[in-house]
Amino acid sequence: MKVKICGITDLETALFAVQSGADAIGFVFADSKRRISPEMAKKIILQLPKKVLKVGVFVNEVVEVIQNIVNETGINVIQLHGDETPEFCTQFTNPVIKALSIKTTADLQQMKHFSCEYFLLDSPRGKYHGGNGVAFDWSILNNVQLEGKKIILAGGLTSENILRAIEITDPHMVDVSSGVETNGKKDIAKINGFIERAKKLKEEVL
């Protein structure tokens, strides 16, 4: 099971996550308590292995700003977490993750209109467009045809519920932010525990 640790703001945590087995590191460039500057993101990315996906998270940002940050930092995957249109998502050469808020089965139909490489399925929005620590009803994905779509499951994931989440949804990747934090800060013990369980438990499911 591939794992993305999102909302990284410092080099030490990023390196620890990668050493623990993280396949992707997420940097938030939108309004969030986890927002990072392009300068700091660049410093971190320069120290990360090439094989690790470096994901830039944007919310209703203009193309020029996104492209400038991508060029400056070395971000190699763009996550669009706002109200971006299908047409907007086609304006980049980098792979795009389109985040969708899922409340009912009908919300999954949005995927038909996008031609993105990945779809991140998240819980309904709270104060921020993501990272609110709330899970949606995973059973919504039961009996839904998702062949050919790389699904990233997000929203309220923790070490305690990751097995159930994987069993129900069988995603391409799982994404966690607040679920590996203590008092609003990334907790390396929780990061290690989450990654270990996500990867080990996937083997058990198989």
In short:
The mean pLDDT is about 90.
How are the SSEs ordered, and which strands pair?
Elements: E1 2-5, H1 11-19, E2 24-28, H2 38-45, E3 53-58, H3 63-73, E4 77-80, E5 96-101, E6 118-122, E7 150-153, H4 162-169, E8 173-176, E9 181-182, E10 185-186, H5 188-205
Parallel strand pairs: 1-2, 1-8, 2-3, 3-4, 4-5, 5-6, 6-7, 7-8
Antiparallel strand pairs: 9-10
**Tally of DSSP helical segments:** 5
What is the strand arrangement across the widest sheet? 1-2-3-4-5-6-7-8
CATH class wording: Alpha Beta
Estimate the helix proportion, in percent: 25-40%
CATH superfamily: Aldolase class I
Termini separation comes to 11 Å
Class from helix and strand fractions: alpha/beta
As for the number of domains, it is 1
Which of globular, elongated, flat, extended, rod-shaped describes the shape? globular
Compute the gyration radius: what is it?
16 Å
CATH-derived topology: TIM Barrel
Order of helices and strands: EHEHEHEEEEHEEEH
Got a strand count?
Answer: 10
Keywords: Amino-acid biosynthesis, Aromatic amino acid biosynthesis, Isomerase, Tryptophan biosynthesis
Domain N-(5'phosphoribosyl) anthranilate isomerase (PRAI): 3-196
Pathway: Amino-acid biosynthesis; L-tryptophan biosynthesis; L-tryptophan from chorismate: step 3/5
Family: Belongs to the TrpF family.
